[in-house]
Amino acid sequence: MPEVESDDAVHAPDEDPGTVPRPAVLLALRDSFGVAVAAAAMGLAFGVLVSQSGLPWWWSTIFSAVIFAGSLEFLLLGLVMTLAPLGQIAATAFVVNVRHVFYALSFPLHRVHGVAGKAYSTFALTDEAFALTARPDARNWSRARIVWGQAFVQIFWVGSVTVGALGGTLIPGGLVGLDFAVTALFVVLGIDSFRARRDVPAVIVAVACALTGHLVLGEQMVLAAMGMFTAFLVARYVIAGKVGRRA
């Protein structure tokens, strides 16, 4: 749980002039509420899947609290239930979460001070957290506001997964569509990120990479598509750095 800062950090200095300062924890709750609720919906679905997989309900709480990577948790659940080799699990985790390397390039981790704060903020750097801080106004957020926002997303996630697992026995087995919650959440996050940045070329390239990967490898498209899009992001980052130095 994030620590409370001094008064100048707890009371967010990044509000509009003329407004009454509010504690960073309340600002973080307001900032994260939308994506936290969306994550909670996916968490309920994951909790139900855990309960219907035959595992005890408390495994859902352990999964969500320790791993805390929504899409990866869905994949890991299936891999664990099929007794997949450790190498396959490691490779899947790498491919799914390699995007977080690029999140770190623009995530305001430099504003989070202290070893404990940086460690938790790095651990909780999820898609939702990145979407929150991708907005232009987030550049001036305080340490407490950033970390509390991440904490609220995790609290909503762990709580919803636990509730879903406890109530999963009340839902008929074989219910289809629960795994689509992951896709739905990523679509919402993608739309929100596009509205904040209007990065049309990245969207076009992402779609092109997905279509190319599907045409070449069919259902095994994820690795190829993410590899091509990662190469595009690296190239764009290098080119932008060179242009910035010349300017």
TrEMBL record:
InterPro entries: Brnchd-chn_aa_trnsp_permease. It is a multi-pass membrane protein. The chain crosses the membrane at residues 32-51, 57-80, 171-191, 200-217, 223-239. The keyword Cell membrane applies. Keywords: Cell membrane, Membrane, Transmembrane, Transmembrane helix, Transport. Belongs to the AzlC family. This is AzlC family ABC transporter permease. It comes from Pseudonocardia yunnanensis. The lineage of its organism: Bacteria, Bacillati, Actinomycetota, Actinomycetes, Pseudonocardiales.
